[in-house]
């Protein structure tokens, strides 16, 4: 096999892709790098070229690194695949390992990361090559064992070969067909006069056979040892000796392979006893092979695993494939070690009788699986922690359980940012340290504090295998193995042990994954705490009585609760033509010049965010054309308050605001928007109430005018008409009286119309049938028939309901004539008044409720308008339709039942 190592590098960043390829080829000249920009291009390269290792980024357009891994595993299950990813991808590490990634490295750090990557590539490829070579050897041996058969020869009593199978040709080096009829001595070395006699002298039957060893002479003169078994048989009356022979040289080679194999090769009898064990047994289990021969294998299997082993190997002949089982095996020192056994062929020999089982040690893999499983459990528990102390304590317990690092601790940044103080420490820390380790900023180089702060400022893990010889520390420390991992901006995760080289790459990866989840938990706890305090503060916003007060309280919430310093609330003012500053925090007035109105054409970042309707965050406004770019302001976050304005938040340091700050500022803006909406509704309601009060005043004034200024002259006119009738009788006086009556009716309906529009404030249960019956006495029905079919109790103002029914009945009688029949009946959600009169033209049914509309000369045109007003005052609906008899029918619906 060529020593060249072809590698496929997949990364969407062309510059990083080129740099990585150059470094890899420079670090190891055997490495030849082929690159691809994404997973699709990478799969194309794999289908066209020979590749022995894939190095892939995680975050890429299209398929990400794990999806690419799935595709590669489907095509090339055993191809080494290394995930080479940037910051923030630790959360996918455990999933990547479960998916079958060969290795996992981060891109952060100096050029040494490429040396590590190159070494991992070489290790992975050489390991795969070795595994393939071993597998090829095993396959060859398996093929020989499966397809090769022993040589079988049949001799007559004179030692003449009467039959030879195909395998005999390979044994004696002569064509099997040419052997027939020749003396067996022709295949033996010259001078061998004993072998034929020994073969011919064996007894008959299985018990009479015997094992015979001799040498065979090949045509080229070479001699090979042969192991054979000879038995005498009688076939069709002829006595024969059957010789089953095997080249002893191949057997010796096979034995040598077994003797030197790393896996344990064992032969088990059907009663589970060891009949043979290869020498590797002692390395794997601690037991010498001779100590276990004859022992019952199940007795060494952990009691909890015996049922599974018995189920797998109970009847190998019935298994669809090779029986396989994983179980714990008791070692020579009494401990248990995880083993995996795979059954093979049945062996039937004089010296060996049983089933071949190949076993390997899988303890490391099982421990890794256990660690990953426990890691998932610990990280799941971190998701439910409620306080910082609870999360820190849980993380320390987890790292002690997963890595057995009793000197670990969580050190969180103090409020003033000058110290990393212990929040949780491992159980062994108090005994190993004279006082709780606390790390002040700006301590001299070589101190433990300086080392901790260097790691905290770094984005990558700091891993030291032997601290005392590393040159990183001038003062003594009880720790030798050390892993320092930043927990975002929160603090530092310290994982340490008193022994050197205690932590494996898997341990470091576990610490990184755990610290990533701890960072997420602390972010969540901080966010939830600030959100809870923010909700308390924003409740005061809706109680503010003016827009200016809302703005002031929003600034207070931003500064006191969210701990922002430079805060300005601007409100959109059409008269001013832009965003006007309404409330400003004290630090803002100290740092920034006097705030001006930001207009659409002013080029302000505030207006851009307001117009877009979405937040805008700037890590450093000096890199923009911001109006405040020449001030002390650096970080800026602008959040729109809906259509009302913006909240702008700033700090004098660049890159201050993160996702949590943006999230909380958004909550504050939403609360402020809700407060502004409530204030606007309250203001509109107050204006409407004032307008309604003015209308009611005008109606009352109108009612007073009608009642006093119109009725009094009308009564005078009526009296004068009576006096005139006494002096002279004229047909004109009757017309005057009718006019006076019509004027009185108009005045009465106008007064009713003015007062019936008020809402019903105190409805009660009313018997609908009783009210209809009382209308017989109050409405002049003349010769008309009134049928009361309505039943039940409804919720209504009794007096106004009576007015509605009287007007509908009166309207039916006036329009239907003396012989009309008027029916009042019930509806599922109301009642109706119907007649059998001439009805209403469908085109005019909507007009009948208009004020002043009448189809008779005597009508005022206000009766049905009053009906609609009474219905509206109750919250009911009324409509005119055709009755079953072809007349008019008025349906009142939306009526609440009191039954």
TrEMBL record:
Tell me what reaction this enzyme catalyses: ATP + protein L-histidine = ADP + protein N-phospho-L-histidine
| Keyword terms, alphabetized | Coiled coil, Kinase, Phosphoprotein, Transferase, Two-component regulatory system
One Gene Ontology term of the biological-process aspect is: regulation of DNA-templated transcription
Stretches assigned to the Histidine kinase domain: 705-893
Residue intervals of the PAC domain: 323-374
- Enzyme Commission designation: 2.7.13.3
Where, per the database record, does this protein carry 4-aspartylphosphate?
A: 57
| Enzyme class name | transferase
Q: Please list the GO terms describing molecular function.
A: phosphorelay sensor kinase activity
* Coiled coil regions in record: 114-147, 534-561
Q: Locate the Response regulatory domain: which residues?
A: 6-122
**What name has this protein been given in UniProt?**
histidine kinase
Q: What is the source species?
A: Halorubrum coriense DSM 10284
């Amino acid at each position: 096999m060529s020593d060249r190592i072809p590698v496929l590098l997949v990364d969407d960043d062309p510059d990083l892709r080129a740099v990585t390829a150059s470094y890899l080829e420079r670090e190891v000249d055997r490495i030849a790098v082929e690159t691809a920009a994404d997973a699709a291009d990478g799969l194309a390269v794999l289908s066209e070229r020979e590749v022995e290792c894939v190095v892939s980024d995680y975050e890429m357009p299209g398929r990400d690194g794990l999806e690419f891994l799935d595709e590669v595993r489907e095509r090339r299950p055993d191809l080494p695949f290394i995930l080479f990813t940037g910051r923030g991808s630790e959360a996918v590490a455990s999933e990547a390992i479960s998916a079958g990634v060969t290795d996992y490295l981060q891109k952060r750090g100096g050029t040494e990361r490429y040396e590590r990557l190159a070494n991992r590539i070489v290790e992975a490829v050489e390991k795969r090559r070795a595994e393939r070579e071993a597998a090829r050897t095993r396959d060859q041996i398996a093929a020989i064992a499966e397809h090769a058969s022993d040589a079988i020869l049949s001799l007559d009593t004179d030692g003449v070969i009467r039959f030879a199978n195909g395998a005999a040709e390979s044994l004696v080096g002569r064509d099997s067909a040419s052997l027939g009829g020749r003396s067996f001595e022709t295949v033996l070395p010259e001078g061998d006069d004993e072998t034929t006699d020994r073969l011919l002298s064996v007894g008959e039957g299985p018990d009479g056979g015997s094992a015979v060893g001799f040498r065979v002479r090949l045509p080229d003169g070479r001699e090979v040892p042969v192991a054979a078994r000879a038995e005498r048989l009688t076939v069709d009356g002829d006595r024969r000796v059957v010789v089953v022979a095997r080249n002893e040289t191949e057997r010796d080679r096979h034995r040598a392979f077994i003797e030197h194999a790393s896996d344990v090769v064992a032969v088990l009898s059907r009663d589970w006893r060891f009949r043979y064990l290869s020498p590797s047994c002692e390395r794997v289990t601690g037991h010498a092979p001779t100590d276990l021969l004859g022992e019952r294998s199940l007795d060494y299997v952990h009691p909890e695993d015996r049922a599974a082993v018995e189920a797998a190997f109970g009847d190998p002949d019935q298994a669809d494939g090779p029986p396989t089982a994983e179980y714990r095996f008791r070692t020579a020192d009494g401990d248990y070690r995880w083993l995996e056994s795979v059954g093979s062929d049945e062996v039937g020999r004089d010296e060996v009788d049983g089933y071949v089982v190949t076993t390997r040690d899988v303890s490391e893999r099982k421990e890794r699986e256990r660690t990953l499983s426990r890691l998932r459990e610990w990280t799941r528990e971190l998701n439910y922690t409620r306080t910082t102390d609870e999360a820190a304590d849980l993380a320390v317990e987890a790292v002690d359980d997963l890595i057995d690092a009793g000197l670990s601790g969580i050190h969180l940044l103090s409020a003033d940012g000058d110290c990393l103080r212990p929040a949780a420490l491992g159980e062994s820390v108090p005994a190993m340290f004279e006082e709780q380790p606390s790390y002040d900023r700006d301590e001299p180089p070589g101190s433990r504090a300086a080392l901790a702060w260097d790691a905290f400022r770094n984005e990558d893990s700091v891993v030291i295998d032997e601290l005392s010889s590393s040159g990183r520390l001038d003062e003594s420390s009880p720790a030798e193995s050390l892993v320092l991992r930043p927990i975002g901006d929160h603090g530092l995760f310290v994982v340490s042990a008193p022994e050197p080289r205690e932590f494996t790459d898997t341990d470091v990866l576990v610490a990184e994954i755990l610290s990533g989840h701890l960072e997420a938990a602390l972010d969540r706890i901080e966010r939830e705490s600030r959100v809870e305090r923010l909700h308390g503060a924003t409740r005061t916003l809706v109680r503010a009585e003016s827009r200016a007060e809302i703005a002031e309280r929003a600034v207070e919430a931003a500064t006191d609760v969210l701990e922002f310093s430079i805060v300005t609330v601007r409100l959109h003012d059409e008269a001013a033509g832009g965003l006007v500053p309404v409330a400003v925090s004290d630090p803002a007035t100290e740092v920034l010049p006097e705030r001006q109105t930001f207009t659409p054409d002013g080029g302000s970042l505030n207006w851009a965010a307001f117009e877009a309707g979405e937040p805008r965050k700037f890590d450093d406004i000096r890199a923009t054309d911001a109006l405040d770019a020449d001030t002390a302001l650096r970080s800026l976050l602008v959040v729109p308050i809906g259509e009302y304005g913006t909240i702008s938040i700033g700090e004098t340091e660049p890159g201050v605001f993160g996702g949590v700050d943006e999230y909380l500022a958004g909550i504050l803006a939403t609360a402020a928007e809700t407060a502004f909406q409530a204030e606007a509704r309250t203001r509109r309601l107050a204006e409407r109430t004032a307008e309604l009060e003015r209308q009611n005043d005008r109606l009352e004034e109108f009612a007073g005018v009608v009642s006093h200024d119109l009725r009094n002259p009308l009564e005078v006119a009526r009296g004068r008409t009576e006096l005139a009738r006494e002096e002279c009788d004229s047909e004109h006086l009757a017309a005057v009286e009718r006019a006076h009556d019509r004027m009185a009716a108009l005045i009465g309906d106008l007064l009713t119309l003015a007062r019936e529009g008020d809402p019903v404030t105190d409805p009660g249960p009313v018997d609908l049938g009783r009210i209809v019956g009382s209308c017989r006495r109050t409405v002049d029905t003349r010769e008309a028939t009134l049928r009361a079919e309505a039943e039940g109790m409804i919720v209504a103002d009794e007096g106004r309901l009576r007015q509605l029914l009287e007007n509908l009945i009166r309207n039916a009688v006036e329009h239907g004539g003396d012989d009309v029949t008027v029916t009042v009946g019930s509806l599922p959600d109301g009642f109706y008044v119907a007649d059998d009169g001439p009805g209403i033209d469908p085109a005019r049914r909507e007009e009948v409720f208009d004020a002043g509309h009448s189809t008779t000369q005597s009508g005022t045109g206000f009766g049905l308008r009053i009906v609609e007003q009474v219905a509206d005052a109750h919250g009911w609906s009324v409509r005119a339709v055709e009755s079953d008899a072809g007349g008019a029918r008025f349906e009142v619906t939306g009526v609440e039942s009191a039954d």
